[in-house]
Amino acid sequence: MRGPSLEQLGWDPALEPEIGEGRRPARVLATHGALIALTAPDGDLLAPLRGTLRRRAEVEGASVLPVVGDWVAVDTEDAIAEVLPRRGVLRRASEEGEVEVLAANIDVLLAVTSLNQDLNVRRLERTLSLALDGGVEAVVVLTKADLVADPFEVAARLEREVATPAITISVRDGWGMPDLHAHLRPARTAALVGMSGVGKSTLVNALLGEDRQQTLPIRAKDDRGRHATTQRELFVLPSGALLVDTPGMRLQRLAGGEAVEDAFDDVVELAAQCRFNDCGHTSEPGCAVLAAIEAGELDPERLEAMRRLEREARWVEERQGGPGDAARRARDRASMKHYRKVMQEKDGEQ
Known about the structure:
350 residues, alpha/beta, CATH 2.40.50.140, Rossmann fold, Ribonucleotide Reductase Protein R1, domain 1, 3 domains, 6-stranded mixed β-sheet, 10 helices, 13 strands
């Protein structure tokens, strides 16, 4: 049985020279230990890794191995010979500072949180920084809108607080689903990221039109959810959009620091108005940030959240290597930002 075309899978023709002679491209649906589930125009398959790729990972680290959403080059023996260059990467750092790539070639991150006790602005800021770190557009998706009296007021307030578009949906009642579909366009890849129990699996099933993902009821004692999804997986939706579902994740440690400024651009804009260029926003005269806090225009917790993420990102980057690695990361970020700008311009022309 033939699979979707390369174009339907979100193929970037610029990757063509990277495939190699005698190889064909395929996209990663899921990883199963030593075998990787792939899809391609000639059908789905489970493919092992070439020994050369495994040995390379032993030297360079696990980030060179395939992850969900990756494009790979498959050889004539149906083995994965190479992971093609990535864009739109979701990544986090371990407690030891090692970078883990979660998913690749993502166009938009859907930061899912429910409107019950799970709603946490500080956690949402971290998730949005995770998206910006990888050059990925972000949208906040507020689920379970039927559980609060005025979900649209909450969405409007949250949109202002995190400076990111927010949409409100209720899968059960059908509220807001057209707004969500506007971000799920054919051949574009979206990733669902959020804590356990916010309704990601229920949402995936609704988008697929069938019960593919297990769902579990929230715990009555604290209104919190339980794990249902156990692995990352890429789905091709009936609409032609591509969707990566992820297991519920605790707070992610950022792998890079530049995205923090993007996620807190309101604070950065205020800081640019401070009297001193090296203002620490603690007690300095002429500090625009402190003035905004005193006027009630900026939540002091947002400033502290930005500082916390900046400290964390610096700690991780110090453990990622020397100047060569820093230069490579800078090139990657520049490439991701350029791609995002080009895609936004294309969307604007449509």
